[in-house]
Amino acid sequence: MSASADSNAQESNADSTADSSVSAELRGDVLLVRVDDGKANAFSVPMLAALDAQIDAAEADGGIKAVVIAGNDRAFFAGFDLNVIRSGDAAAIGELVSAGGAMVRRAYGASVPVVAACTGHAVAAGALLLLGCDHRVGPDAPVKIGLNEVAIALTLPGWAMTIAKERLSRRHLQRCVANARLLDGNGAVEAGYLDEAVSPDAVVDRALEVAAELAETLDARAYAGTVRALRGDVLAAMDASVERDRAAAA
């Protein structure tokens, strides 16, 4: 990170009170959102709501031109909270999975570029959030990245299958989805979960660098319009899938 960007760091005005694990600060015209629950960053409904609020705040602030989402030293995100997924509570499971789908769709359809700083493992819904980000920087390290649902007796919801088909390499789709293969940083680049793998201690700085470049070079209005045109069909399919899941769980 450059000295100038560091000197401009300040707390974001976005409300992250929904979940104390989510914090944010401005780095020039980039909003850096950090998530650290002290463990593996398993998605909960409050955490997802807090992430959504940060993207809301970025979109509403004309001075913010890009967003970086970073995990902790252990993980980007470990996926959904398995205590909920294995609870047998259909309503709670449906609420959590639907909130995850809405968040991945939110990132993919955001009117500002969203860059992932994949600081460690990214499994299941964590890998899906990577697929929803414009640019993904991860570690050149033996981390675990991928969709392991089939291996743990789960089936991907429709919205997840939609984004996986859209962003993963066609050549790797079978082994990544149906065969539940988890990949290291370089393997994740080849499969399409990541765009680049760098030294683990450089992941956040590189993500900020990419976000700053996008913020500087892209016209905000043209970007937002292009996202709607380029990704509209995928976003609509994800919306419909999330709504079906919510209706089924009601």
Features:
three-stranded parallel sheet, seven-stranded mixed sheet, alpha/beta, 2-enoyl-CoA Hydratase, Chain A, domain 1, disordered N terminus
Please give the structural blueprint.
Blueprint: H1 3-7, E1 10-11, E2 22-27, E3 30-35, E4 42-43, H2 45-60, E5 66-70, E6 75-77, E7 79-80, H3 82-85, H4 90-108, E8 114-117, E9 121-123, H5 125-131, E10 135-139, E11 145-146, H6 158-167, H7 173-178, H8 185-191, E12 196-198, H9 203-217, H10 220-249
Parallel strand pairs: 3-5, 4-7, 5-8, 6-9, 8-10, 9-11, 10-12
Antiparallel strand pairs: 1-2, 2-3
Describe the structure.
This protein has 10 helices and 12 strands. The strands form 3 sheets. It has a 7-stranded mixed beta sheet, with helices on both faces. A 3-stranded parallel beta sheet has the order 6-9-11. A two-stranded parallel ribbon has the order 4-7. The protein has one domain: 2-enoyl-CoA Hydratase, Chain A, domain 1. α4 runs antiparallel to α10 and α6 packs antiparallel against α10. The chain is globular, with a radius of gyration of 17 Å. The protein is of the alpha/beta class.
- The radius of gyration computed from the alpha-carbon positions, rounded to a whole number of angstroms, is 17 Å
Structural class: alpha/beta
Reported CATH architecture: Alpha-Beta Complex
The strands making up the biggest β-sheet line up spatially as: 1-2-3-5-8-10-12
Q: What is the domain total for the residues?
A: 1
The amount of helix comes to 40-55%
The total strand number stands at: 12
- CATH class reads Alpha Beta
Number of helices: 10
CATH superfamily: 2-enoyl-CoA Hydratase, Chain A, domain 1
Calculate the terminal CA-CA distance, rounded to whole Å.
46 Å
Average the pLDDT over all residues and give the rounded result.
Answer: 93
Strand coverage percent: 15-25%
Element pattern in H and E: HEEEEHEEEHHEEHEEHHHEHH
> Could you give a short account of the major beta sheet?
7 strands, mixed
CATH topology: 2-enoyl-CoA Hydratase, Chain A, domain 1
The general outline is globular
